[in-house]
Amino acid sequence: MHQQKGIWSTGGFRRIMRGPRFIKSRETKTPQLKYGVSSMIQSQEKPDRVLIRIKDLTVEKADEVVWVRGRIHTSRAKGKQCFLVLRQQQFNIQALVAVGQHASKQMVKFAANINKESIVDVEGVVRKAHQKIGGCTQQDVELHVQRIYVISLAEPRLPLQLDDAVRPEVEGEEDGRATVNQDTRLDNRVIDLRTSTSQAIFCLQSGICQLFRETLIHKGFVEIQTPKIISAASEGGANVFTVSYFKSSAYLAQSPQLYKQMCICADFEKVFCIGPVFRAEDSNTHRHLTEFVGLDIEMAFNYHYHEVVDEIADTLVQIFKGLQERFQTEIQTVNKQFPCEPFKFLEPTLRLEYREAVAMLREAGVEMGDEEDLRYLGSTKMCQSLVKVVYDTDFYILDKYPLAVRPFYTMPDPVNPKNSNSYDMFMRGEEILSGAQRIHDPQLLTERAQHHGIDLEKIKAYIDSFRFGAPPHAGGGIGLERVTMLYLGLHNVRQTSMFPRDPKRLTP
């Protein structure tokens, strides 16, 4: 049997430890040995071997000899056989090592004692399964192993078990089986991210960014990058992180807002950006992070800011459609652990004025004033329930917020100066976008900044941007992690942040 030079160690014996036992394995000192521990891959050479993706192992490949790289998810020895489950991202396949022409007793014993989560290269024949294999994504085929080599050995004790980490909480409570709490997951995030659920979540999240970018480029937008180290609080507020900047201080940007507007004043007309946003808010809730990914849009319009609202709403609808079309496997994977009703939306998107939402809530028994912000009254969930009953949608827009609850750069409503040309967008009752028509007149902008008590000197460059002619424009910022969380019906934004940052977590 042909053996590539330099791939396998010729150093004699190496020991694989599993619990108290040591399994000796002679590495491929001779080309006939069909199992062992690989020497460390240091890019010595590029063998002509082709590794097949586990997700591509289907009945169409039956009887083919293939090479696969995967992790040992589980192993079970039974007499002269060993059943392995090999995992690769969210896909897995059963592999059989059986005493016979291609495997000795020692090889079966070796395979059975490889530590969970170790990475192996396996050569095997794809065989049709006699019956569907439960617990595997590749249910119609299995791999009959001819050779197996350990590429990277995992330590025998794992900080958490992946089977526990994907077990639905309800199932764990009913059956008395272990589940993994949030802190344990986040403390051992590298292991937690290997679960099929986490793999699906972040694959879908990547799809949201891709669809956002595709849709806006198709609409004629230009992608921009904005600075994250700035000289003044980007929204004139106090909730900013201060950093040392040579002999002075600087701040981490709360938003790319001001720079998006500057680009509009520079005649880019339609811009978007994807990047980190920092909020020094001591909010320990299920939906707040101190660092998250913002999907930001800004656009010049002709006569009415609803031109922009329509574009943003359509962009989100295109994302929802794209997720349904491209990521059904991922959605189903997440739903196995976290069951949820499919996300519903309307075309065109439902748009209610703020006063209509207040009236609905009052009718339902909620006491609130005309200018109170329902986002901070805990009323958005009730509003969602009412909207769902009446309109059967999980996505809607609230328009014409009270001016008193919006930032200084928000354009007042010309009909009712107590209102503003501003809007929020909601998914399953939680805000995912806040936006508005911006004030593009420097005199009015100065007056509104003074009204809010903002130091004009600190926003001088921003105000000056509008002194040389500025088109009317509007925009908004979307929280990527919230969109992912709410689309999938998850309950904590930390599940959709790869390495979350909140007031109590700065690692890993």
Automatic annotation (TrEMBL):
Pfam families: tRNA-synt_2, tRNA_anti-codon. Its EC number is 6.1.1.12. PROSITE patterns: AA_TRNA_LIGASE_II (PS50862). GO terms for biological process: aspartyl-tRNA aminoacylation. It is found in: Cytoplasm. GO terms for cellular component: aminoacyl-tRNA synthetase multienzyme complex; cytosol. The keyword Acetylation applies. InterPro entries: Aa-tRNA-synt_II, aa-tRNA-synth_II, aa-tRNA-synth_II/BPL/LPL, Asp-tRNA_synthase_2, Asp/Asn-tRNA-synth_IIb, NA-bd_OB-fold, NA-bd_OB_tRNA. Its main location: cytoplasm. HAMAP family: Asp_tRNA_synth_type2. Homodimer. Part of a multisubunit complex that groups tRNA ligases for Arg (RARS1), Asp (DARS1), Gln (QARS1), Ile (IARS1), Leu (LARS1), Lys (KARS1), Met (MARS1) the bifunctional ligase for Glu and Pro (EPRS1) and the auxiliary subunits AIMP1/p43, AIMP2/p38 and EEF1E1/p18. Belongs to the class-II aminoacyl-tRNA synthetase family. Type 2 subfamily. This is Aspartate--tRNA ligase, cytoplasmic. It comes from Buteo japonicus. The lineage of its organism: Eukaryota, Metazoa, Chordata, Craniata, Vertebrata.
